[in-house]
Amino acid sequence: MARRGFSDRAFPNGRVLRFCRANSDPTITQIGRELGVSRQRAAQVVGHLRDEGYVTVTPSATSGKEKVVRITIKAAEYLAAHAASARKIERALERQLGAESFDALGHLIENLSGDEDLRMSDYLRAKRQGGTLRYPEE
């Protein structure tokens, strides 16, 4: 990422940037729902991204209380660099593990991070804290 011009230690919230890129005129409220946080917390995240030049924030044409968030060229460049770096890491990991193990790792990650209520981050957080993660049906 540093070679691509993104050397800051604190990278932008890629999830918010990807959400804004994928949705037409996303609002701060929609971003909050996507992140599972309050509108106020979403506004803080968006404010930081705006201050760093990754998004613009404009009043909504349909609601006086809402703000529309759009990515900037800098954000698009960041997302492209991030995707290229991820592909490079994936290729190196596949070479190191071999195709069969790499595919198995992909299936494991897919199962841990599915569309269910529990995400991989929940699982890893519980493991780091020495606990276990129980699924709702358990």
Summarize the structure.
By secondary structure, the protein is mainly alpha-helical.
Overview of this protein structure:
Strand 1 and strand 2 form a beta hairpin. The chain is built from 6 helices and 2 strands. It has a two-stranded antiparallel sheet with strand order 1-2. The N and C termini lie far apart (42 Å). Helix 2 crosses helix 3 and helix 4 crosses helix 5. The radius of gyration is 18 Å and the shape is globular. The model has no long low-confidence stretch (mean pLDDT 82). By secondary structure, it is mostly helical. Helix content is 57%, strand content 7%.
| Shape summary | globular
List the helices and strands in order: HHHEEHHH
Fraction in beta strands: 5-15%
> Mean pLDDT, rounded to whole units?
82
Strand order of the largest sheet: 1-2
From the alpha carbons, calculate the radius of gyration and give it in angstroms. Answer: 18 Å
Largest sheet: 2 strands, antiparallel
Determine the number of helices (DSSP H or I, runs of at least 4 residues). Answer: 6
Distance between the termini: 42 Å
Helix content estimate: 55-70%
Total beta-strand segments: 2
Low-confidence stretches: none
Determine the structural class based on helices, strands and strand pairing. mainly alpha
